[in-house]
Every structure is written in C-alpha cells, then in structure tokens.
Write a structure and sequence with these properties.
It is a single chain. The chain has 674 residues and is of the alpha+beta class. 32% of the residues lie in helices and 24% in strands. It is built from 18 helices and 24 strands. Helix 9 packs parallel to helix 13.
C-alpha cells in the first residue's frame, strides 16, 4: 500500500469461484484460499500459477478460514465443526461432524486465549440467534442462545476476549449496540442450552439524527468504530465513519464518505481499511486512555458540523503538511485514500521546538516568489538529517510540483533533477513529479526517476515509454540525456552512424545462423560483426533502457501496453531484438556499460510486447520480416544450446579428470568426445 505497487496476482480457472476470503498463514508465510466450497489451495508469494499450487479436496463445505498470529490457521465448516489446518491436512477427506442443524452461520471470529485458539461464531434459525464458543485443539464446544429483542434483529457482530471473558458486541436494527458477556467455561460439553442476556452499550443517536450502522469494530476497551449512514432531517442520508466513546456514551468524531462504501469496515494493527467509492482507503488511528474532560469536549464538538478535532481526516492537501509533522496529542487518524499510506511520524527535536514545522513553513511559502521559495527549500534540505528527512524531501518536491501546476511558466528543472539524483526518494513520496515531467517533456528527469524509483505505477511507466517512442530523433539530439547505458555497445560517429565493432560471438557465426535458417538475414538485423545498425538513436536508446529497468507487474502493465500504437510497438520490438542479438554475441550474455539492460529484462519485455500486439504485428507487412528474423534467431539459439547440452556430460568428466590429475606431473593426454 505504501508504494502503490501490486506485489502479486493469482487467478483461479474459469468457472471456479473463491468462496471465502484468502488469509495468510503467519507461521509459514503462505496464502490459504478455498474455491468451490471444498477445494483448499496453499501457495507462497513466489508461486506464479495458482493451478499448480498445493491442492486438497475436503469432505465438507468451508465457511471461513481464520488465521491467528500465534495459533495457526483454523478452518470453520458450514456445519459448525472446526479443525486446525495441521489436523485437516493430515487427512483432508476425514469426516466432518454436523454441529448445527438447520442454522445458518452469520458471523465468525477467531482469538487467542493463552496458547489456545478460540473460535466464536453466531448462527440464525427461524429468527432465533445462537452463539457458539469453540476450542478446536481441545474439542471443547459451548452453545448459547441470544436473548431476543422486541422488534429488532442483530445486523452485525464483533467480539474480543479479556480476562477469560468473551465480550460480544451486537449492532441491532434499532440503532443500538448491545453487549453480551460470555465467561469461558471449563473444557466440558454443555448439557443444557444457556440463554445469554444482553445490556445496552451505546445508542447511535447524534443530536437528533440516527446513525444506521452496517459494520462495527472494537478499537480498545473504551472506543468503537461504526460505519453506517447518517440521516439528518430534510437531507439525503450520507455514509460516514464514526468513532464512539462507550465509557461516556459520546460521539468522538465522524467523517462523511460521499462516494459510498461497501458497508464493510476492517481494522488491523491500528489501521482502518474500507472501500470508498472505487478505491481502498486506509486510515491510521491511535487511541489514548479515555477521560471525562476529553469526552465532554468532544461531545461539544459533536453538536457542530465539524467534529474533526479528534482526528486528522485530511488527505494529501495543504493542511496535511502541517499535521503530518506536528505532535498528535489525542487519537490521531490520517486518511490517505488511493492507497497512498505513508509513514510520517513526528519526531521534532527539542532544540527545534520554537521553530516552524516543515508543514507550516511550506504553507507560508505558498505565495512567495519563485526565488524565495527555492532559496528557503534549499536551506531546509541542507539542515542536519532527521528521522523524517525522506518525508520532508517528499513535501519539498510536492511544494515545487504544486507551484508548477499553478504556474505553467514555472519549472525548476535543475533543482528537481538535483533532488532526485542526490536524495533517496520514491514515487509515492512525490506522486505528481513524473506527471509534471511528462507534461514538460523533461526526458532527462523521467530517465532518472525510472532508474531510481522502485514503485512507479505501470500506468506511468507506459506513459514514459510512449513519450520516448513518439519523440523525434532530431529533438532528442538537443536534449541532455545520460548515455552511460549505451555508449559501450552503440559506437557513434559524427554523422550518428554506428561504427562496426569486433565482438566475440556466442558460439556461432552469422553464416552458421543463415545455414540453419536457410535464408540470409536482412540488412537491418544482421549481427554486429556484419555492420548492424541500431534502429534508434543513442538518446532514445538510453531512455528506453531506463524503461527496461523500471520494475513492473505483468498483469497490470499488459492492459496499458495494448494501447501502444502499432508502429511504436514495432520500433520498440526492433530495438529489443537488437539488444537481444547484442547480448547473445557476448559469452556471458551481458552488455557492457553502466545500468545496461540484462538479458532477462530484454526477453521479458519482448514476450510482454508480443503478448500485447501479436495479432496486430502478424497483420502488418512491415512487422512480418522482423518477426521472421526473431523466430530464426531464437531457433538458432535453441539449437546451439541444445548442442551444448549434448556434450555437458563429457565436459563434466573432463572437469573431474582435471581434479584427479597430479598438478606436478607433466603429461599430454588426448580425450576423445563421442
């Protein structure tokens, strides 16, 4: 989330359906999924094909898999039985008993009590609700019936365990949260069904309007978060996230979510996760010990439209620059939507306590002249390093790009290049920088970013590739571009024609390749030893090399790459083919120079480009010769390595004989390779 980069993507076959959420096994760092109710899949992050992952078909339908940090995964079946994953994998087809009859599971949760995992789930049958508390490792099960509430039904549940007591919170349709206390019984079976009584914990009313909750989570012993819609008199209902103090029955703060939500709210490691519109929103929070003074103060705030003093709801706007670098004194929440979650903790030293914060300084410079802005920012960057230095530099770049967007004539090219070259930045720290560079056609800055940023989104990578390919060679010759990655294998004379160089070929010659392919290779794709020319100039080649170095995920880059114009795709493929031939001529298949593309990067991009444009290239006459030459060259390579494989055994035997031979004895031996 911090770098906006997809780390992995796995898909089931067509017709298969994932039937419960995928979880991570904290102990083995494996993913666990269930598809089609009974088929269990387990795989690791480095696995690519889900169909080849571990598979186990179970004898009963699975409701949910729960994973505990120190208790291992627990599998809950729709019939109410539970098994730890280890026990289940010993005999996947073991018989699963039916615990619930005619009941439907509505909610489940897993917790640790000491060293034992505890599974809690609620069921419904004919309007009655039941609670089950189960310890899978001890085969302990207790069933309770939930006390009925007149004219109201439970909508959602959450729970936590404290001092051997389960606290179950129930959000009812009458807009109230009830609390049910369930003591953890000795590990024996209950003979009779016990009825649980509940007590009113919270009434979700906000000075008249009532919050229609859809999901709730527990933050600590005194605070809960409720996601729902707030209907004010005479207004359309608006969805919002609210934080409540259950100890003093007060609303602490709320945030409207105008784009709508899925109705689900998750909480993990002091972060909220929710779907707002079409994006994942992550909100950090921190709870302090509840006090009456704070609760009363926030209650007063809740009477007004703005109740944001309890938390910081700002995203990446000007106001956030202040909040991000100041001490948070109460529950601090920072919402950063569009998956832009950054760690910006305030660690202002005591000696700087009287000076302006970074955020306040940037706000004060918002309307300053360009000279004053750059001077102050240079002084800020020259200060002694602090733990928040990276975030500070990110805010400096953001301030500069904001000025560029407000004033189209302003563009501090040298200053931005200096920052990117000398500071350890990432795309997520300055997300507008590359967009501004693309708009200004700053090819050199884009080259530096592609070479240094580890987290560039695939959409931006594609935009850079398209911009590089569309730029004319004449224009690129006037641009300052770093040529370190090309000067060692593209020799250029004054007329920009490539000079023929002597290169050791990788085990075969051009003549051999022509004999095996029964054709002569065209002039533009002959091997370098025969005077091959690069299809692009050195400046464009250096920029394309930067693209080849940029990390990407194939699944997310391919849709963008399909939009690349056909002629640009052919030009790019021609250059990749040129690099491929160059690498193959070297014994170690490595291009000389600094930050040169590797053979793996070249081949991966060739395959990706062919996947995206193969149908178009087959239809275009100008691409036919290129595809034919590529096919012939690859076939020659395959045959060459096949011949090497045939003598592999003989070479190993020769190596063994060299080890056995006495180093001080002179001899001449003739070894016949059959």
């Amino acid at each position: 989330i911090s770098d906006q980069k997809p780390l992995g993507c796995w898909s089931v076959k067509h017709g298969q359906i994932l039937t419960c959420p995928v979880v991570c096994n904290f102990e083995t760092h494996e993913f666990i999924a269930v598809h089609d109710d009974k088929v269990l899949r387990i795989w690791k992050n480095e696995d690519i094909n889900l169909d080849k992952a571990f598979k186990a078909t179970l004898s009963a339908d699975v409701y949910r898999v729960h994973s505990l940090p120190h208790g291992g995964p627990v599998v809950l079946f729709r019939a109410g039985a539970a098994r730890t994953l280890d026990v289940l994998l010993e005999a996947p087809q073991q018989e699963i008993e039916d615990i619930i009859s005619g009941e439907v599971i509505r909610w489940s949760g897993a917790f640790m009590e000491g060293q034992q995992p505890v599974l809690i789930f609620t069921t419904e049958k004919d309007g009655d609700f039941f609670v089950y508390v189960q310890k899978p490792k001890l085969s302990s099960l207790h069933k309770y019936k939930l006390e009925q509430q007149e004219s109201a039904q439970p909508l959602c549940f959450t729970a936590h365990i404290t001092n051997h007591t389960v606290t179950l919170l129930c959000l009812y349709s009458n807009d109230c949260v009830y609390q049910v206390l369930i003591p953890l019984q000795p590990d024996t079976e209950e003979e009779e069904e016990e009825i649980l009584s509940k007590s009113l914990l919270l009434n979700l009313s906000v000075s008249g309007p009532v919050l229609k909750g859809t999901s709730l989570v527990v933050l600590d012993k005194d605070h809960i978060a409720v996601l729902g819609s707030l209907a004010a008199p005479g207004k359309e209902p608006t969805e919002c996230l609210t934080i409540w103090n259950t100890k003093f029955q007060t609303l602490q703060t709320s945030k409207e979510l105008p784009l709508g939500t899925s109705g689900q709210l998750w909480c993990y490691e002091e972060k909220f996760f929710l779907i707002h519109g079409k994006v994942l929103t992550v909100i950090m929070y921190k709870c302090e010990t509840s006090s009456l003074a704070a609760a009363v103060g926030k209650l007063k705030d809740s009477q007004t439209p703005d109740v944001s003093s309890f938390m910081n709801w700002n995203t990446l706007e000007d106001e956030e620059l202040v909040v991000s670098f100041q001490s948070q004194e109460s529950v601090a929440l920072k919402a950063e939507s569009r998956m832009n979650l950054r760690s910006r903790r305030s660690t202002v030293a005591e000696k700087q306590a009287e000076t302006l914060s970074v955020g306040q300084l940037l706000l004060n410079l918002k309307d300053a002249s360009n000279y004053v802005l750059e001077t102050e920012l240079r002084q800020l960057m020259a200060q002694a390093p602090t733990p928040d230095l990276q975030a500070t530099i990110g805010c400096v770049v953001t301030a500069l790009t904001d000025r560029c967007k407000r004033n189209p004539k302003y563009y501090p090219q040298d200053f931005l290049q200096q920052i990117v070259e000398t500071r350890d930045l990432s795309y997520s720290l300055c997300p507008d920088l590359m967009a501004v560079a693309l708009e200004k056609k700053d090819m050199h800055l884009l080259q530096i970013c592609l070479e240094r940023f580890p987290d560039i989104p695939e959409e931006i990578t594609y935009a850079c590739l398209k911009a590089f390919l569309s730029m004319s060679e004449a224009h690129l010759e006037s641009i300052d571009v770093n040529l370190d990655s090309v000067v060692c294998y593209i020799d250029v004379e004054f007329d920009n024609k490539e000079v023929k160089t002597e290169i050791v070929e990788n085990g075969f010659s051009a003549d051999m390749d022509q004999d095996m392919c029964d054709t002569r290779m065209p002039k533009e794709s002959q091997l370098s030893s025969h005077g091959e020319s690069c299809p692009v100039g050195p400046q464009k080649a250096a920029l394309l090399n930067a693209v080849l170095h940029s990390p990407y995920t194939e699944t997310f880059l391919l849709p963008h790459l399909k939009n690349l114009p056909a002629r640009q795709a052919i030009l790019f493929l021609r250059y990749l083919y040129y690099l491929y031939v160059k690498c193959s001529e070297k014994v170690n298949t490595t291009l000389p120079g600094i930050r040169c593309p590797t053979i793996n990067q070249i081949m991966d991009w060739m395959c990706l480009l062919l996947d995206a444009h193969f149908t178009v290239m087959v239809m275009l006459p100008e691409a036919k010769e290129l595809l034919s030459n590529l096919h012939k060259f690859v076939r020659a390579q395959v045959r060459f390595y096949s011949e090497l494989n045939k003598i592999e055994g003989s070479l190993r035997e020769l190596q063994r004989l060299n080890h056995l031979r006495e180093s001080q004895t002179y001899s001449i031996e003739v070894l016949e390779i059959i």
